[in-house]
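Task card 7
Instruction: Convert sequence to structure tokens.
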Amino acid sequence: MKYCNVYKEWKKISDFHNSSYSEDKKQINCTKCVNSWKKYYDKCEVEGCTNKPVPQTKLCIAHNKKRRCKYNGCTRHHSHKLNGYCKTHGKK
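Output:
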């Protein structure tokens, strides 16, 4: 038996994914927790949008324009040091 940190209950060891980092070689959250987390973060945060979010954000490319490079068609994140352009387009 192993304790699930999200559901706050004891579950069978088989209810946990494998992990090479932990002492018991199992993840700290049960499979049900991990799968529900993946479903939540696998969609854009905007209601009704089913596009995948940009890594490290909760928004897809279409809804994440505020942080995008000003160069036409570029989907990279901008840098404040480069006046709204990404590293590739800010040095021109």
